[in-house]
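To the wet lab folks,

You asked to see what we're planning to order before we commit. Fair enough. Below is the target structure as tokens, and below that is the sequence we designed to fit it. If anything looks off to you, flag it before the synthesis order goes out.
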């Protein structure tokens, strides 16, 4: 059985290489290959296309590394096993955190589950996301976070506060299935997973295998109200606010001149559309002997 390890050499304070070697030693009775992420994700897509005998892909890094892998794995008969080693690792808060010592048993049981992905059509290209995308305040925040080289636990909080003070209402036309919304918004969140921004519970009712994406439209409100509502954004109770529109959907179209954030990467775009891809990815499944730690 062939297993490939994909690492981000900058993740985990530069410890990805050490973690990858530990995994390789644990799997010494298997054929194991490895590589690091590159600036051009197309190279990894081509690599997977030429190496479809790979049965498991183990990623060592954060959510960006997982997103990099997902572009190649969507629709393939390869099981993803993500080992969190990044700043946020928010997807692990939804799916569970893998300890490297559990990997041999995860592989020996052969269990996996099919999960959904979102597919975004934007600026003439299409790309998948496994966790969360958004347009508006969230895109501004992520752009600011990505510009900071040395991050701490307070980086996201500082970025949120800074962007709120600079924020202006964004007029948006949003079509969810056949329902149309014409609103001044702060943010629109389109979620497959539940968490982003190092533990912000952005979409508390999202399920990664139900065939739907959860949409949260946050209408514009006075900045002082936003500041008072920050705690409700972090714990997910904001979705009950009168300024928030919530829907489940398989197809969404957005016309919104703002910064778009897709699993941590930012893009400037005026219009984009999203669709849910049901059962598009194979994800590891814990066995009865493994109890994964789901972070809260």
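Sequence we intend to order:
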């Amino acid at each position: 059985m062939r297993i490939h390890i994909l690492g981000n050499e900058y993740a985990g304070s530069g410890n990805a290489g050490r973690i990858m070697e530990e995994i390789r030693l644990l799997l010494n009775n298997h054929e194991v290959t490895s590589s690091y992420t590159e600036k051009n994700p197309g190279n990894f897509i081509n690599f997977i296309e030429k190496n479809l005998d790979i049965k498991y892909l183990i990623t060592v890094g954060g959510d960006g590394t997982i997103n990099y892998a997902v572009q190649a794995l969507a629709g393939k008969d390869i099981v993803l096993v993500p080992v969190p080693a990044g700043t946020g690792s928010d997807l692990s808060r939804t799916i569970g955190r893998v300890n490297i010592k559990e990997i041999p048993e995860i592989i020996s049981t052969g269990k996996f589950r099919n999960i959904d992905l979102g597919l975004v059509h934007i600026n003439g290209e299409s790309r998948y996301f496994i966790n969360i995308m958004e347009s508006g305040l969230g895109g501004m925040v992520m752009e600011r976070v990505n510009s900071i080289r040395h991050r701490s636990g307070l980086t996201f909080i500082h970025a949120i506060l800074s962007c709120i003070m600079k924020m202006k209402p964004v007029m948006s036309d949003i079509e969810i299935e056949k329902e149309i919304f014409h609103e001044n918004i702060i943010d629109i969140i389109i979620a497959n997973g539940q968490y982003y921004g190092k533990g912000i519970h952005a979409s508390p009712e999202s399920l990664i295998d139900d065939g739907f994406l959860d949409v949260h439209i946050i209408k514009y409100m006075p900045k002082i109200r936003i500041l008072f509502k920050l705690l409700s954004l972090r714990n997910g109770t904001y979705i009950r606010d009168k300024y928030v529109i919530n829907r489940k959907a398989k197809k969404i179209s957005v016309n919104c001149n703002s910064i778009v954030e897709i699993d941590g990467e930012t893009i400037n775009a005026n219009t984009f559309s999203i669709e849910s891809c049901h059962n598009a990815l194979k994800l590891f499944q814990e066995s009865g002997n493994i109890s994964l730690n789901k972070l809260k």
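Structural context that might help your review: DSSP finds nine helices and 13 strands in the chain. Residues 21 and 203 are 35 Å apart (CA to CA).

Thanks,
Computational group
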